[in-house]
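@channel sequence for tomorrow's demo:
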Amino acid sequence: METPAGQLLEFFYPIHYKAGMALEDAMRRGRLTRTQVAILWLIRAEGEAGAIMRRKDIERRIRSWFEITSSAITKAIRGMARAPLSLVSVVEDPQSAREKRVVLTSDGKRFHSAMLAEGRNFLRKLITEISAEDIKHGIRFLGQAIAALEVSEQTNLQSKNRRDRGSSRN
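structure tokens (generated this afternoon):
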């Protein structure tokens, strides 16, 4: 008999690649690349007030998700900053002239809201045949899984920082 972890692993392909990418395609609205969608989500999820993020933090996160160069990230951000999109602006960081910050424009905030609406519509169609109780349990499970992942990431980061401090003393 397969373990629960093994059973969950079997969902990786259909959730990540089939459902996740189909959802992403719906939310791109035919206007953004996958990298650009990820950048918008990242700014909204982890940026200051959901609207501002240091460019180097965007690069660090995006590079951990995609096999992508720094110049490709710059190109994606510039594409979102130029007309006709004008979703972000790139400004100097007030604390360091060398640092840049990526800021969602009002058009960027509206685009993100429209992305969310497209995502909700996509998911609404998927869940029509699932009971309200099963949906509620699924949401609860996913929330707990994300919380556990965040704890794990924090623990791993703390361990890495301790190792780095220990190796820098040698």
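heads up for whoever presents: DSSP finds seven helices and three strands in the chain.
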